Amino acid sequence: MYSETASSIIAAARELPRARLELALLRTIDVFKVLPHNAKIDVPHLEQIKSLARATVKRFGKIDVPVNDAGVVQYKLFFQISGEEWDFVFTANMRKLYFCT
Fold this sequence. Notes:
The chain is an alpha+beta fold. It has helices at residues 16-27, 46-60, 83-99, and strands at 7-13, 34-40.
């Protein structure tokens, strides 16, 4: 059972194959008709976030529902992570949370 109107969903990921996979998974949910669009974005880079938002609004007129599911993690014990690694994890996750919402 599809909704009466299709949903335009942009899946953004660091690598386009990942974005395409996410869209394919969304198509398996029997609630939405998905009009897929994908984009390459690396969330630690603020300009890429802004560019995606501008392109989305230009194409669709607005953003109805943002969903943030990106994240960076280091699979190390806390005392094994360098300051630079922690800064990258923290910056990537906080920028995603703040600027993508």
